[in-house]
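Support reply, case 0932

Customer input (verbatim):
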Amino acid sequence: MPAPAPVRAAPTEVPEELRQELWNLIHTGNPIMAIKLVRDRTGLGLKEAHDYIEGMRQNDVTLR
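Our regenerated output:
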């Protein structure tokens, strides 16, 4: 049985350009596209990318 692939931690630094794209997707009601973008650009797994976007959403006072 092959060893499981290592899980990458959430990025600590996201380039400002990517962060802006993520905010735009979140604010226009496209969190799934934001998750996909995080996965494509960072190589994170689905859960880690989802957690990253959820963290952005929870920290955004304009969405409350």
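We compared this against your earlier run and they match. Two observations from our side: The helical segments are 16-27, 31-42, 46-58. The chain has a mean pLDDT of 84. Please reopen the case if you see a mismatch on your end.
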